[in-house]
């Protein structure tokens, strides 16, 4: 009987404590600002310099550009990241001179087929929520406040 009362006491005491669990996936988990999540890609900012693809340690970025009529340089045509092998190391976003590729705080990548882990330009562009503020700050600093 004493054990039962003791047990109930512990239960009642813990019922009044703040919750340490989350209702995930019903309520999304918000990650801290320096979290390295799935990248956002902005084709308007990309100058097709290839630096992100060159530095990628797992060779998971594939991109191509096309010539613009009557303009210098290229515009981005295709841009794909293979999330089978991307280790979200942040190097591509660190080297990007224009901030075209930035990390977000998004992390959900579960899919039923491995093919779906190849995310193309449109998908990466639409991944535009929770863009990491710290990254934007670094790019702004690198360009004297301009992005
Ligand atoms: S986060 Fe790292 S592994 Fe992923 S695409 Fe960028 S450089 Fe490659
Ligand atoms: S480093 Fe930036 S600007 Fe250069 S190709 Fe990659 S995303 Fe485009």
From TrEMBL:
Q: How is the cofactor bound?
A: Binds 2 [4Fe-4S] clusters per subunit.
State where it is primarily located: membrane
Task: Name the coenzymes or cofactors required.
Answer: [4Fe-4S] cluster
Q: Which residues bind [4Fe-4S] cluster 2?
A: 56, 86, 89, 92
Catalyzed reactions per annotation: a quinone + NADH + 5 H(+)(in) = a quinol + NAD(+) + 4 H(+)(out)
Q: Which of UniProt's keywords are assigned here?
A: 4Fe-4S, Cell membrane, Iron, Iron-sulfur, Membrane, Metal-binding, NAD, Oxidoreductase, Quinone, Translocase, Ubiquinone
Location of this chain's protein in the cell: Cell membrane
Tell me which domain of life the UniProt entry assigns to the organism this sequence originates from. Answer: Bacteria
> Matching Gene3D superfamilies, A to Z?
3.30.70.3270
PANTHER family reported for this sequence: NADH DEHYDROGENASE [UBIQUINONE] IRON-SULFUR PROTEIN 8, MITOCHONDRIAL, NADH DEHYDROGENASE UBIQUINONE IRON-SULFUR PROTEIN 8, MITOCHONDRIAL
Q: What does this protein do?
A: NDH-1 shuttles electrons from NADH, via FMN and iron-sulfur (Fe-S) centers, to quinones in the respiratory chain. The immediate electron acceptor for the enzyme in this species is believed to be ubiquinone. Couples the redox reaction to proton translocation (for every two electrons transferred, four hydrogen ions are translocated across the cytoplasmic membrane), and thus conserves the redox energy in a proton gradient.
What name has this protein been given in UniProt?
NADH-quinone oxidoreductase subunit I
Highest lineage ranks of the organism? Bacteria, Bacillati, Bacillota, Bacilli, Bacillales
Question: By which gene is this protein encoded?
Answer: nuoI
